[in-house]
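Before we proceed, please read the two lines closing this message. Report back on whether the structure tokens fit the sequence:
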Amino acid sequence: MKIIASDAGRAKSWRAALVDRQNELWQRVRNHGEQRRHHLSERATGVLADAVQWLAELPEHSIHAVVTDPPYGIVEFEEKNHRKLRAGRGGVWRIPPSFDGAKRSPLPRFTVLSQEEVSALYNFFGALAYGLNRALVPGGHVFLASNPLLSTMTFHAFQRAGFEKRGEIIRLVQTLRGGDRPKGAEREFSEVSMMARSCWEPWGLFRKPFEGTAADNLRKWGTGGLRRISGEEPFKDVITCSPTRGVEREIAPHPSLKPQRFLRQIVRAALPLGIGIVYDPFAGSTSTLAAADHLGYHAIGTERDVTYFAMGCKAFPKLTALTLG
């Protein structure tokens, strides 16, 4: 009985130390830098800043996990393509037709990228990965949204920066990406699809290396593993989740909005003990921050687009409070 009591006391001691360090870090991180920011709640803050630049100024070992859907980057969110997206035609964005009474969301056409643009993307993700590797505590995980066309390139950039690849989270979701007939000759080649219709979305799962045992790292940093769904059920790498529609789109009309039903699952898994700070480098509509706040986690996000920053500040409380049926 004395041994059990002693073990319980030690567990309480290191957990209390983790919580104290989380609270100390949180006050430092959420107020870091001179950029414009909005404290969305006691546990969430959005910063109007470029992610790579903000990370370069952030002290090392400041965040515990990353969950993000990057812009793939540079290309579809360049101002010239953004103007065309908001105008509803042209550029790298494909505006799907409305049918069945439903308006489909725009999709970037990554097949049109030149070799130079792909190389620029690789360098961009490399810079992001190096910044995240420095800012994360040992054992911190990165959940990185991608797509079947570019995942090999982006995942390699993270591995080259020193991250361990820990697998992929597969979101089973059928979108309008792929399956189209030859443009301008749809009737002539009615039996031909130029690409397979995409029915899945890969999320790269990476971990910053740590020394010692997993148990040691969990006690010291609160990281190194994934939070289980329950005592009997582990977190799994396949999640079925339909596209974002309905009320969420009305709350936050961002072209890359991910549904709370999905985000809350992966954000929860990102902090194995439920202690720490989640960071989204491309916060957009603040959907990741809202998922974290809903779970009782601390979260910070950066977003460099003024329009999306304003959208996210407005959408955050509604996304956080959203009840999933």
In short: Residues 2-321 form a domain with the Rossmann fold fold (CATH 3.40.50.150).
